[in-house]
Design brief:
binds FE3-S4 cluster; OB fold (Dihydrolipoamide Acetyltransferase, E2P); about 475 residues; binds iron/sulfur cluster; alpha/beta; globular; 21 strands; binds S-adenosyl-L-homocysteine; pyruvate-formate lyase- activating enzyme
């Protein structure tokens, strides 16, 4: 039994990072058994779930979408906001009920929420029916823990994060577009954010192993890779090997995979060299997710975001001026403790200035252990909800405006899936990350197709093959 500890999770004393080459022998002892996996949270969790799927399938399990059919349930959880947590505990009610009927059902919890000591206390006190809890730093222990499951709750969560596992195997969801971790953890400690505690210290994978992974995906016929990190701009800084994110991007581009994306960029250390590399290589997509969080300098300071609104605008304008056709999206939090009417107006002003292609908007949610959770807050929830509503109206207006500019244009779309907008349609994304529903057959899936845009909505475009 190992339980998480926020003091250890917060510790950033320099220790050597261990690069561990995984070489695992997993026995398929669960033949004819089914797994049900549910993923909450960000792309990083989605990618971790691909690792979990590899372990489950190597153990002999086959997937099912029906909870009642499963022999093992795995919930990969998120801790970013309170509603992410509520969803998990809501769903656990159904799992508990199923276990009453199906005594041998194995229930496994993992993901960021499990790195929170308070949740682990809750689970060990009140949720004895959960068999295994494993943290974000030791997913590779899952095969062993599942193979040895004994009907007694087993919690294995560590808070020290001085390891990078290489040679991780994945059962990827897509044969067209792949996620690649380039950097784990985060050292920024934005005062509202739990991620530095749940994902540990910022550590980069070595460039040669990333390039090997990209080359192998290209060989397998992948059309797109997305490089993942909480703050990809800081890639390499911890290694001291003389390369940075711009170097990595350029080297990935030279491998020649048709489409390269990356998330997320912090506005703080987005270098000119990065902008130049993105502009120079046609296979690096002209799309940047650049979270601003607030339009008020006072709030940005309290958030520990390390930039001012003027600096953000400067960067925004440089990116727009240098990268042709670039689209820029953002994240915004409303109702940070004591955000005044003026602070909120500043946020509306920056949205009016940048006219973002899209924005994810959130109401501030206090996370236990973070600095902002201790700030006294006089703003009512009703007020915060009204602000969110007002912000969303503005954000959606600009999304629609930016989408309307595409009508009549012919754009490249990488078709990835059947569309849920009709059996005669498929869907995919433009280079600028606009979702397009295209009239056409499933034979187009996996190809980059020239599409003429016929209509625009706030969150998607319609088109026909040109
Ligand atoms: N590393 C990324 C963010 C990952 S979290 C970055 O720095 O851009 C995704 C988004 O969730 C954040 O950009 C922020 O807008 C939001 N978020 C994080 N913590 C939050 C909290 N406590 N309450 C509300 N929104 C939060
Ligand atoms: Fe959280 Fe800030 Fe790190 Fe992003 S940069 S993960 S918002 S602490
Ligand atoms: Fe992602 Fe949620 Fe963890 S947003 S990093 S899964 S807290």
């Amino acid at each position: 039994m190992n339980k998480p500890d926020l003091c250890i999770a917060k510790d950033r004393k320099k220790v050597d990072i261990d690069y561990i080459n995984l070489d695992m022998d997993i026995k398929p002892i669960f033949q004819n058994k089914k797994y049900f996996l549910r993923t909450y949270g960000c792309q990083m969790n989605v990618h971790d779930s691909e690792e979990i799927k590899y372990y489950l399938e190597s153990l002999g399990f086959t997937p099912t979408n029906i909870l009642d059919e499963s022999d093992i349930v795995v919930l990969n959880t998120c801790a970013i906001r309170e509603n992410a947590k509520d969803k998990v505990f809501g769903y656990l009610g159904r799992c508990k009920h199923l276990k009453k009927i199906k005594k041998d059902l194995i229930i496994v919890l993992t993901g960021c929420l499990m790195q929170q000591p308070s949740e682990i206390e809750e689970i060990s006190k009140n949720h004895g029916y959960i068999d295994i809890v494993v943290g974000t730093h030791n997913l590779n222990e899952l095969p062993k823990l599942i193979s040895n499951v004994k009907g007694k709750q087993n919690i294995e969560v560590y808070s020290n994060s001085d390891k990078v596992f290489e040679n991780i195997k994945y059962r990827r969801d897509s044969k067209i577009s792949a996620w690649i971790n380039i950097q784990l953890g985060c050292d920024k400690f934005c005062t509202y954010c739990i991620v530095p505690y749940t994902r540990g210290r910022e550590r980069s994978r070595r460039m040669d192993s990333i390039l090997e992974e990209v080359a192998s995906l290209k060989e397998q016929g992948y059309m797109e890779v997305t490089l993942l990190g909480q703050n990809v701009n800081a890639y390499g800084n911890d290694l001291g090997l003389g390369y940075d994110f711009a170097t990595l991007l350029e080297s990935v581009a030279k491998i020649g995979i048709p489409r390269i994306r990356f998330v997320t960029s912090h506005p703080w250390n987005f270098t000119d060299k990065m902008i130049e590399v993105i502009a120079k290589y046609p296979n690096i997509m002209p799309y940047v997710h650049l979270p601003i969080q607030s339009g008020s300098d006072a709030i940005l300071k309290k958030m520990n975001r390390r930039y001012t609104v003027a600096e953000y605008k400067n960067l925004f304008n440089k990116i727009k001026a240098t990268i042709p056709r670039v689209s820029i999206t953002t994240d915004i939090i409303v109702g940070f403790p004591n955000e005044s009417a003026k602070d909120f107006q500043d946020t509306l002003d920056i949205v009016n200035y940048c006219k973002f292609d899209g924005a994810f908007t959130f109401i501030f949610s206090p996370r236990m252990g973070t600095a902002a959770a201790l700030m006294v807050d006089k703003i009512t929830m009703k007020e915060k909800e009204e602000r969110l509503h007002q912000l969303n109206e503005l954000v959606n207006k600009y999304s629609l405006e930016s989408n309307k500019k595409y009508v009549g244009e012919v754009v490249d779309v990488l078709i990835t899936d059947l569309s849920d907008k009709g059996i005669d349609k498929v869907c995919g994304y433009t280079d600028t990350m606009k979702l397009v529903n295209v009239l056409g057959s499933k034979d187009l899936i996996g190809q980059i197709v020239k599409v003429k845009i016929t209509d625009a909505k706030s969150f998607s475009l319609d088109g026909v093959v040109a």
